[in-house]
Amino acid sequence: MERTIIHVDMDAFYATVEQRDNPDFLGKPVIVGANPRHGRGRGVVSTASYEARKYGIHSAQPISQAYRLCPNGIFLPVRGKRYVHVSRAIMAILREYSPVVETVSLDEAFLDVTGTERLFGHAEEIGKQMKVRIKEQERLTASVGIGPNKLVAKIASDLKKPDGFVVVGREEVRQFLSPLPVSRLWGIGKKTEEKLANLGITTIGELALLSKKTSQDCFGKLGVVLWQYAQGIDDSPVISSREAKSISNELTFQKDVTDIQVLRETLLQLSEKVGYRLRSQNMVGRTVTLKIRWSDFSTYIRHKTYPKSIFMGDTIYAGIFALIENIDIHQPVRLLGVGVTQLSRADEHQMELFGIENGKSQIVDETMDRIKNKFGEKIIGRGLHQSGR
Ligand code: TTP
Ligand code: MG
């Protein structure tokens, strides 16, 4: 079926919220991520305003490096609760335009507007209206991409940031994707990018010229997916976040892994991502799920149910950790997955705890300490990773 998908992504989200709340910061380099409790040297940049990006500052960069690049920048702590609040207001605006809104993170959502055209006018008009509403009501700018599927809509929204608006018609998909670097596609990390470069492939157009079989021979199952993406094919549905039954994240290793330390670190990262996505969607869960796919493709799934609702990456990881401890790693691991089920909406009390700086419960801290004691500071010392990706 022909679909029309809109992707919305707020511009420099945490930083623009700070600029809006403190007009003195408007037009200046604002860097969010400084942790006043830890002094200047520790932690990473959550995000930087577009003014700060001119200095080479970006998300996930050590904050110490950002200080060196822009000593006169405005360095601010993360105000998690504030962004959750603003995010809710933005998502409420989006829900006025379609019942099918999938929130991917605090500042990002997909809308399936197939069939709503008759009510609202064309998708293009909907996209424009949404931008205006967000600007007028929240005084923030969003970048919007429109396409026949999620992949194309997402790439489109990112292309003309900030304040971008890119519409890709059904007939224009190939032409649109062709000149873009392969790294724009989902599933292409640094390693795959390098492998493709060795084959002389740097653009999506070049990748699209590979036969499906060659792509599969080079990259296995991933090759088939990449081949489809390169053709602009993506059938994944927009799943209304209100109907989500589980929130999960999984990772297939480039090469099968036996090293327990690597497995634990990966599980920690996956747990943090799942925790972040839960919080972004104002959800809590009760059961954690560990999924392991072995090198022979057999799959192993184990669950652990908590007496209380959970939503922090550390707590999720504590459950996953207990599960993996009891598993005999008898063959190399191909894929790891972490999920949370038995979901419900977070209540106000739980929302209080979403405040990222001040919200760690005692249990979480104790768990972190136990893990740190057992495996050293490094495994968990990066702090709460706030990216949903
Ligand atoms: P993004 O949408 O990736 O980034 P952004 O909104 O700051 O900038 P833009 O979309 O214009 O490129 O992420 C949304 C928010 O998530 C971001 O404002 C801060 C947070 N975040 C982190 O805390 N750590 C990260 O590594 C990333 C990528 C984002
Ligand atoms: Mg954004």
What hetero molecules are bound to the protein chains?
thymidine-5'-triphosphate, magnesium ion
Largest sheet: 5 strands, mixed
CATH architecture of the largest domain: 2-Layer Sandwich
Q: Number of helix segments?
A: 15
Low-confidence region ranges: 355-363, 376-389
Bin the helical content. 40-55%
Order of helices and strands: EHEEHHEHEEHHEHEHHHHEHEEHEEHH
How many domains in all? Answer: 4
Distance between the termini: 28 Å
Give the rounded overall mean pLDDT. 86
CATH class of the largest domain: Alpha Beta
Please state roughly what percent of the residues sit in beta strands, choosing from under 5%, 5-15%, 15-25%, 25-35%, 35-45% or over 45%: 15-25%
Oligomer: single chain
CATH fold category name of the largest domain: Dna Ligase, domain 1
Summarize the structure.
Helix content is 41%, strand content 21%. By secondary structure, the protein is α+β, with helices and mostly antiparallel strands. The protein folds into 4 domains: 5-9 and 83-174, Alpha-Beta Plaits, CATH 3.30.70; 14-80, MutS, DNA mismatch repair protein, domain I, CATH 3.40.1170.60; 181-230, 5' to 3' exonuclease, C-terminal subdomain (DNA polymerase, domain 1, Orthogonal Bundle); 244-387, Dna Ligase, domain 1.
